[in-house]
Amino acid sequence: MSDEIQNTKKNTLVDSLLPTTNEDEMKNLMKELDREQSYREHKCWRQHVTVIISVAFCIFQLHATLTGRIPAQIVRASHLAFVQFLAFLLFPATKSMPKNTLPLYDVILAFIGAGCWSYYIINFRAIVFRAGAYTPLDIAVGIVGILILFETCRRIVGLPIMIIAGSFILYAFIGKYLPGFLNHRGYSVSRVVTHLYYTTEGIIGTPIGACSTFIFLFILFGAFLEKTGIGQFFIDACNAIAGGASGGPAKVAVLSSALLGTVSGSSVSNTVGSGSFTIPMMKKLGYRGEFAGAVEAAASTGGQLMPPIMGAAAFLMAESVGLPYITVVKAAVIPALLYFAGIFITVHLEAHKLGLKGLPKEELPRFLPLFLTRGYMILPLIVIIFFLCSGKTATYSALMGILSIVVIAIAVSFVDVAKGNKPRFKLDDLVEVLCAAARGIISVAIACGMAGIIIGIVTLTGLGLKLGAGLVALAHGKLFITLLLTMISSIILGMGAPTTANYLITSTITAGAIVRCIYGLGDTTPEQLLPAHMFAFYFGIIADVTPPVALAAIAGAAIAKARPMLTAVNATKLAIGAFIVPYMFIYNPAMLMIGSNALSILGITVTALIGMFAISAGLEGYAFAHTGFLNNFGVSDNVKKAGSIIERLTFVAAGLCCIDPNPATDICGVILLLVLIALQLLRKKKQTRLA
User: Fold this and answer.
1) In angstroms, what is the C-alpha Rg of the chain?
2) 459 CB contacts (<8 Å, ≥6 apart)?
3) Strand partners, 622
4) Average model confidence (pLDDT) for the chain?
5) What confidence tens digit (pLDDT) does each residue in 628-682 have?
6) CB of 209 within 8 A of CB of 78?
7) What's the CA gap between 167 and 161, in Å, rounded?
8) Does an H or E element contain 344, and which?
9) What's the rounded Cα separation, in Å, for the pair 537 and 546?
10) Widest CA span in the chain
């Protein structure tokens, strides 16, 4: 989904502050860190074949969605057949292999992968009528199909999810030899293979069902939207709004990454796409390289938490917990707001602490002319949000969004022709969009297929309940300890995994422990499941900035020419909201707009924002003046340092009191913060008078 973002041409906003990293370096960085971007760029006849298959794939998906006449299993299997074929045509066995060749073995693997799912499609009725009486050929095809899926996962999605899925399959075979709660009766090869390959409990289960319907449509919508140049429009609009403020480029990075998160499905892609513009600007303005890279990485990672898309996880979450898509989107609004507020406040405080100014206002774009000339680009987003809020399905809303883009593109092109200019959007652009959408869905579909394997083994063996019971037992039934263990598990499981795979893995393995700890073994409603799924998802995503993997932080460090691990540490500090907010909505689900009224939501949001300010001030060591209430008393440096640490910890304590969903702690936190602010303002006034 991110090809157009990093290829967006940069305007002459501030010539002296333009990025020093060229487009080729950005492209190579993307290919190095983001497997989804390490695809072959075919020439001659190979390019035509790839284009034809990609366009046919998109047409089939649109036909299946619009008609609704094809059985769901056939749609899912066909979806995987196209994906497997394109995966071997586009992605080499290793990232270091040449991108302009197509080995014969990849052609063979492409036909085998597509052939395995074609076998399912052709024999669908016979397989259904046999009602579980699978033939040796069925089992052989299933084994080959699963192995092919593992190979495409290794190439495109990465080893972590492949190892996890492989471990789950192994567990199905050896469970009878394991002790304690992990023990089960064991299953044969034929039982495991047929369960995973031919039933809707496995590979063609709920994740692929979501992927082959509305996720595909939203990826197609995103591809259309990126083709309009909306990425550059977002950056220019954010520069017009915040570029002239103190530390402007950093604030632009936060705002633009939040907006780009609505169309980008990858933290790394988002970091490289907007970071190639914002990070050099931040450095030249005076921010340290490690801080500049961290700002972009933290903000770009937050883009995956940003509704309405949430890196396609919103759709999977709606399917998993059984809630309407719009309910999931509404639940994500306040946590995302608090996350970006935390980063924005920290950036603001850092700018004031360093005395950084904004960009010259005369060299910034003016918002009104920009909006009048290019504001039409956001109309499709308005259309899709309107239909979602009107209660329409995600599929219908996505189709209306796509239709609105087509109508706008045609209208703009007619205006261009009427003015004697070349049309901005041509038929070639439509083909490029379809190819980008087909390429963008590959990694998502493979991740969903692998997640289907994990879910299939969980349903076959009952492992989900066992893992939940194990974590709760390890925490001795204490909710906070259970949440802490779940947080650590989700961060580990999320390392290096794309957004969709991230959510599917973390929610399947860890969310059950939270539900088990809170509600026991009784029945739960979808509303009760949602906070646990959101909790697991948040910490899985934050792995993109958390050492030691921290792919988004490494991407930011590469652009900033900074130290990767220090950048990751700074990004983790900036993303502090992601470590606090999930605990808040577990203890108070009203934050997710579940069973709450507008007044209570407003109160929670306001006190939480105050809390985020206090915590950011504590971490930065600055609110209105540098921390250190003993600085002006003629004491030693060690005593001054101790005073600064005490004041910073007091700020953090005040923030945590405000964030805790309890009126008593809110009052204590606000009073404590007011005292601290008063002391800081008095100190600043005294310092100004002495100066």
Assistant:
1) 26
2) 201
3) 626
4) 84
5) 766 655 556 676 677 788 888 999 999 989 887 778 888 999 999 999 999 888 8
6) no
7) 10
8) helix 325-354
9) 14
10) 90
